[in-house]
Write a structure and sequence with these properties.
102 residues; MazG-like family; nucleoside triphosphate diphosphatase activity; mainly alpha
Length: 102
């Protein structure tokens, strides 16, 4: 019975993280439409990143694993060159690599 309770708690926690993540994406889009200042936008972006990392952790991935997968995705985007010049994937990849040293 205790195991079932833990499973139910984990499911509820995952669902709450998904709801929070979607809520922050909604808030970000709403802030765009309402022409909010940069502080509101960056606050929503930060919350989205936080909830994404926490959701990944709840699903069994540690933060380093998520960072490594992110770096692989960035490398694929750099190689793909579909968005070349439009987005700065290389700079983001350098930044993520650099923050590991801190």
């Amino acid at each position: 019975m205790k195991n079932n309770l833990e499973i139910a708690k984990n499911i509820m926690s995952i669902e709450n993280l998904k709801i929070n993540l979607l809520g922050k994406v909604y808030s970000l889009f709403k802030a765009f439409n309402e022409d909010e200042d940069g502080e509101v936008l960056i606050d929503n972006l930060c919350d989205i990143l936080i909830f994404a990392y926490l959701l990944g952790e709840k699903l069994g991935y540690d933060f380093e694993e998520i960072d490594e997968a992110l770096q692989k995705k960035l490398k694929l985007q750099i190689i793909d060159k579909n968005f070349e010049g439009e987005y700065n994937f290389s700079e983001l990849e350098r930044y993520i690599k650099g923050r590991k040293r801190e």
